């Protein structure tokens, strides 16, 4: 293995987090491999990244109905999904051709980038194996492509919707694409190191690097659930959110900005509270922690929540008071949390590891 291309995009941190996990696994398998990174949005042209990020943020925060409509339209009208993918594929593919080089293996973590890779593959300009890691728990039509070598989903329940997107697409299940530090570990030891109370019910709240959604409402509901609950809220780069939460002035509430120790906090937690189901959900799954999806964000967030609940890995809390009730239920019924944790552990065991998925993609024995 000589050169590996990771094609990601800075749209929050989720796609890059998946790329870092894949790069880590590549170095484990092939220590001499050269890893090259490209940001699909940067490839598509100057200003494309900031524009697309602003559109995404605006849709989620201010016009979720528009985001829902676009998501619904991709499923409702096959011609619309196909035309959108052809347009973005040609846009990204033409520009990608100028900087692609001759990689021996291509790993994509962003759907528009995968569209460009398929455009190149259709024209015979990309002989290297191509794998796309679908970091959303629920695939949607923009994620799945028929001409690449593998579309990697996160759980067997995600295979039917992926095949529904593109019936002839090659789909396989991957272990969660997270860094190796995200794995089941010593909860008590993690709490001692992080200064968290040993006997508390620790709820880790993480809604991505942008701190999207009803995070303050989640913190208030957790504080109201039970006197033993210690919410640890990671605000990412959302400094305004951190200031708002600190004004709650409850000694149990721990408010963090950006942290490089998400793995430690995840291992220390009894439950992970999130609203999108992307990287944070996968990290919780990799650590065998149950997930509470609180007021999932529009479109992909709601789809991820439904599918994670179907897999027995999450409880969905959409209305006022449901998060409080769910936490009380988990505290009063320890067997429920144990069932969810065991479901995550079974999946981790059955999915193998990330190295297996990379070996299979590269045509090596697993």
UniProtKB/TrEMBL annotation:
It is found in: Membrane. Coiled coil: none annotated. One of its GO terms (molecular function) is transferase activity. SUPFAM superfamilies: UDP-Glycosyltransferase/glycogen phosphorylase (SSF53756). Residues 32-157 form the Diacylglycerol glucosyltransferase N-terminal domain. Gene3D superfamilies: Glycogen Phosphorylase B (3.40.50.2000). Residues 203-343 form the Glycosyl transferase family 28 C-terminal domain. Transmembrane segments: none annotated. InterPro entries: Diacylglyc_glucosyltr_N, Glyco_trans_28_C, Glycosyltransf_28_UgtP. Belongs to the glycosyltransferase 28 family. This is UDP-N-acetylglucosamine:LPS N-acetylglucosamine transferase. The lineage of its organism: Bacteria, Bacillati, Actinomycetota, Actinomycetes, Pseudonocardiales.
